[in-house]
Amino acid sequence: MASSSHLQPEDITIIHEPLTHPYGQNMVALMLAEEFAGRGFRVRIVGQECSPEIEERLKARGITFVRIGRRRCLLDRSELKSFETWLRDCIFPYEGELHSEGVTVNTSSMLSLPSTLWYAQGPVSTCLSHVVREQPARYRLAYYLLKPIIQLAECEFINRIRRRVKVIVANSRYCASLYQRFGIRVGKVIYPPMDCKVFQPSTGSPTSDYVLTYFGKETLWSTIRTIADRGVKVKAFGGKVEDVPRSILEHPNIEYLGRVETWRLVELYSNALYTLFTYNHEPFGYIPVESMACGTPVLTLKGGGPAESVVDGRTGWLCENPVQLVEWALKIWREGYPGWIRMECRKRALSFDRRRIAEEWLQLLEGLYSS
């Protein structure tokens, strides 16, 4: 085995749902599975749904996907489909048996099967309570009508997880604090992995003539609009939002690119003056780490997970509130920053590289397997 771990090359089972795209939390399950398989472990991913493209990717690396109890969704839109799946699986959980001779890592926020450990990546009910504030009125109304059911579903899921796992690992210290409010004791924090061979500077001479940002369900639209109103040229990517405000889409200083290929995203990060990451809820934040891996500093908020990856004054700037964020956005746009910051960004991002994070996971699993 290539790994320094003493774990025997038995099964490592990863529970995850749904694997319909390779982004966000799905990236954690995929990268860990690939790293474990590359070290000689027999790896399988268990879930209710997997896209054909991802299943082919797994097969090419010797990883098996096992489907369990797939159920049809009534809602078609991606965001609503994810919510429906989560709500249904929390209230009416899949109760089938899962046989594994090795260790089982549950990275799902929906499936509460018995596992060696559970990777907590943020309470869904907490996320919804924050992101709904920037959503259209129809979504806010639906949320407040469903709020009691949503809170009940989260509690049911967490109570089952508490009974069925040995150890709970969180993806950030901030995320761990969110689960403490539910009475969950987090045993360890392991940050999500990033592929720093894919995300790396594509140029030694960045154009630095725009600011890059991400449009998602957590975006602070009013902050983005204010910054663009002040003359900052903004390029935005992101393919999950179907309700970007018209004032944003039609703004002369904002170029919305939609979902972009990874190679294009690397170029966008590498040439940006800085990456602006606004949010109303973020347990960890993949965007800041991707940006730093490409050598570009990040302007973001102090609360939440990004404050654990961005080093204030060295790899970016952490602001107390959206008002201060606007002030710093203008200041950096006009004045720039020292060149050494880009080198510090790359150095910081390497601490999240998938190979390093996989070794941290294997050390933890070895201890659990031995005991």
Provide a quick synopsis of the model.
The chain is α/β, with parallel strands linked by helices and 371 residues long.
Task: Give a structural overview.
By secondary structure, this protein is an alpha/beta fold. The chain has 2 domains: 11-193 and 353-370, Rossmann fold, CATH 3.40.50; 211-352, Rossmann fold (3-Layer(aba) Sandwich). Helices cover 41% and strands 15% of the residues. It contains 13 helices and 13 strands. It has helices at 25-38, 52-60, 78-91, 124-131, 137-164, 173-180, 221-229, 246-249, 262-271, 286-293, 322-335, 340-349, 354-370; strands at residues 11-15, 42-47, 64-67, 103-106, 115-120, 165-170, 188-189, 211-214, 234-237, 254-256, 274-277, 298-301, 316-319. It has a 7-stranded parallel sheet with strand order 3-2-1-4-5-6-7, sandwiched between helices. Helix 3 (78-91) packs parallel to helix 5 (137-164). The longest helix has 28 residues, at 137-164. The radius of gyration is 21 Å and the shape is globular. It starts with 10 loop residues before the first strand and ends with a helix.
CATH class type of the largest domain:
Alpha Beta
Number of domains: 2
CATH topology of the largest domain: Rossmann fold
Helix content: 40-55%
The CATH homologous superfamily of the largest domain is termed Glycogen Phosphorylase B
| Proportion of beta-strand residues | 15-25%
CATH architecture of the largest domain: 3-Layer(aba) Sandwich
Average pLDDT metric: 90
The major sheet is characterized as: 7 strands, parallel
**Poorly predicted regions:** none
Can you write the helix and strand succession as a string? EHEHEHEEHHEHEEHEHEHEHEEHHH
What's the total number of strands?
Answer: 13
Straight-line N-to-C gap: 21 Å
Rg for CA atoms: 21 Å
Please state how the strands of the largest beta sheet are arranged side by side. 3-2-1-4-5-6-7
Structural class estimated from helices and strands: alpha/beta
